[in-house]
Please model this.
Amino acid sequence: MTGSVRYVPKLKSREEIEYMLDWIFRDLVPADDRSLDYAREYARGGAAVCRWILGRDHASPVTGKVLNRPVTCNDVRHEGYEAQVAMANGGYPAVRPPRPPLSMNFLNGVDDWASWATGSQGVSLPDGWPFDQGPPLPPIR
Model:
């Protein structure tokens, strides 16, 4: 039997997501640095994805969906896609009823952390990452 191994994305562990959420606020954007509003918005988007996955926020960060069940890998991937759609629409999520626009930096943070949380590159791991990084990701074709 010949063939290729199919890459199946899966959600990062709860411990990894909690570690990353803590790192976002501890190291990514120091609380005393007010000059980095763009970075603060980016970090806020990443934190929103992490909190939603962990069940700390009930509504998804871009579409505002309430699932009433645990968030799955596909839910997170879809929310990352919706962040890209909103960026293409000038910050407006493509939902009904319409929602107010979100900042591009927030949406970029949502997209990047959604990619990371579902096994894609997304963001760089912090120094001292205590978890196994697993095998290298398959090449993009």
In short: DSSP finds four helices and no strands in the chain. The longest helix spans residues 37-54. Residues 91 and 103 are 6 Å apart (CA to CA).
